[in-house]
Amino acid sequence: MGSHNKQKVYALVDCNSFFCSCERLFRPEIRNKPVGVLSNNDGCFVSRTPELKALGVKMGDPYFKVRRLCESHNVHVFSSNFSLYTNISDRVMNVLARFAPSLEIYSVDEAFLDLTGMDEDLVAYGHRIRETVLQWTGIPVSIGIAPSKTLAKIANHIGKKSEKANGVVCLLDERLQDVALKRVSIEDVWGIGRKNSVKLRTLGIKTAYDFKAFKNIKVIQRTLTKLGRMTQDELRGITCYELEECRPKKKEILCSRTFSGSVVDLKSLRESVANYVTNASEKMRAQRSLCATIEVYCHSDPHKLNEVPYYGKDKVKLLGPTSDTRKIIKYAWSALDDLFKMGVCFKKAGVKLGDFSDDEVIQQSLFEELDDPRSAKLMKIVDEINRREGSGMIRSMACGVDNDSWKMRREKLSRRYVTGWAQLPKCS
């Protein structure tokens, strides 16, 4: 493999069965055993190891439907432990940052690296990245290398499945690209999705290669808009999507949960909303924003046949933006009090913060006092402590002292191996 100075080169690094790999990290006895991780409230499978896939358990399968199968095959099933996964993800990303001048963290378990201009064997370099991540963090990864992000996704997809590739596939050669694209269904192309694949199949496009070779670009633009055309160009090796090192700020931040049981009293409902406000406010401050609208909603279980369904939603428009959790809880509660109805069994509640402004550019309000510097400083200290000691270490008393009445079902939750002093692994 020679120099690639004139060509963009991206590597997509994707952690294999990431949530399951995190659970295996501190449980070596379950390596090479079937492992699965469930969604919120222990609902559906969101991560599976190859051993579990081999048993026929699909992504999104409800756990209650395959419980007997799992029990008969001694499958190790876990509730989602996001504090563990985000901590391990940070470690993986820190290792990856050593291997490229530019990195885009695409999701909790995926990152794009810019390898443009590297004058060395890129397959060997990919294996070195893979071995280092595994040695330093314990997480196995697969790597796809290509001249565009879309091709890198396809290379990675092949790298996960091919034993011969051993986790690294390089598609810089156009001949290899064509061979690979002929094996990929149009539904599996990044950015196409199920609806668009149906439209493309009516044009006779069944594989990624068919899409690349389709010559009538006006039809593609009319069918899939400009984004579809860009995806087609990416399959041809033309870079359309650059690396996004700085993620754009979110325009809205939503935090909601489904309760494991039913909540019937205002106190518990208030506590749940106060916790959601706390989480959403922390994320908002992380992107250095202040909100001017607070939306609160709550509803009963729509699937219960013997109950009249109830859905309540209200939005508070502030006269001046704020990032102070205490102030946002106060406004959210005022909306929630109007929504609460005695006799309703609430199953879910949520908060959405929006109408953001930058914390460095604040428009003064004639009608409401803005956050004072002491408030901003207090919130910053709280965020730093929670980031260091674990989420929820310091929070408002409005959040309550326990969450027994409104907590999620997490009966199979693993220990906080890396974020809780009391739950650190013990050596004997």
TrEMBL record:
Domain of life according to the entry: Bacteria
The organism's taxonomic lineage, starting at the top: Bacteria, Pseudomonadati, Bdellovibrionota, Bacteriovoracia, Bacteriovoracales
Protein family membership: Belongs to the DNA polymerase type-Y family.
The organism of origin for this protein: Halobacteriovorax vibrionivorans
Protein name: Y-family DNA polymerase
Domain annotation UmuC: ranges: 10-193
The entry's keywords: DNA damage, DNA repair, SOS mutagenesis, SOS response
Pfam families, A to Z: DUF4113, IMS, IMS_C
PROSITE patterns associated with the record: UMUC (PS50173)
